[in-house]
Amino acid sequence: MIFLEVLLFILGVALFTVTLSSIIGVPFLPTHHKQARAMMEFAALRPGLRVVDLGSGAGRLLFLAAERGADAVGYELNPVLYFWTLLVIKLKGLSGRVSVRCQSLYQADLSGADVVFAFLFPKPMAKLAPKLFTEMKPGATIISYAFSIPGHTPIKKEQGIFVYKV
Questions:
Q1: What is the pLDDT of residues 25-79, one digit of tens each?
Q2: Buried b (16+ CB within 10 A) or exposed e, 52-61
Q3: CATH number for the domain including 140?
Q4: Which one of 26, 109, 136, 142 has the lowest number of neighbouring Cβ atoms within 10 Å?
Q5: Which tens digit of pLDDT belongs to each residue from 101-145?
Q6: What is the pTM of this model?
Q7: Which bin fits 130, alpha (ψ -120 to 50), beta or left (φ > 0)?
Q8: Calpha distance 50→66 (Å, rounded)
Q9: Other Cβ atoms closer than 10 A to 98
Q10: Contact 105, 75 (CB under 8 A)
Q11: Is residue 16 part of a domain?
């Protein structure tokens, strides 16, 4: 009986997450491991760099960036994924290097970012583009997975990954 209650709870949380993602317009789709590693290489991450992941999901890119010595901040509006990421940050002992904020990616502070990651559908990406190219410092890198940034030409396109310089 308790198994059934736990299963129903998990299904309820999953349904809530899918519904919330549909309302927000950006569903949770994790970046594939191979492409996530390629994104780290394309970003040339090293200690001292500041990374921002817009729509950080379960934190995969945040943790990979921290492994390479970068400080990483994620923005995730989905409360289930936000709390999951907080838990993993604690479990991995990364509290000083990785953080996550439960707030809209459109309100993210990009002024100090050396690298910004985004995996967003075309409409949200188009809405985000002006913010990226006006708030980020010259020379910063934007890496988009699966979808290009409308109106901008990438300096590199490989494995479904688009790399831009500000």
A1: 566 777 878 999 999 999 999 999 999 999 999 999 999 999 999 999 999 999 9
A2: bbbbbbbbbb
A3: 3.40.50.150
A4: 109
A5: 999 999 999 999 999 999 999 999 999 999 999 999 999 999 999
A6: 0.85
A7: alpha
A8: 10
A9: 25
A10: yes
A11: no
Q: Is residue 90 part of a domain?
A: yes
Region at 132 (left for phi over 0; alpha for psi -120 to 50; beta for the rest): alpha
Q: What is the CA radius of gyration of the chain?
A: 16
pLDDT at 30: 75
Domain range for 138 is 27-165
Identify the burial level of 80 via C-beta atoms within 10 angstroms of its C-beta, where 0-12 means exposed, 13-18 middle and 19 or more buried: middle
Residue 145's SS3 state is strand
- Between the alpha carbon of residue 43 and those of residues 37, 39, 51, the distances in Å are 10, 6, 9
Q: Which two tokens stand for residue 113?
A: 């970012």
Q: Determine how β-strand 161-165 pairs with β-strand 156-158.
A: antiparallel
Identity of residue 10: I
Number of domains in the chain: 1
Q: Does residue 3 lie within any of the structural domains?
A: no
Could you tell me if residue 10 is inside a domain? no
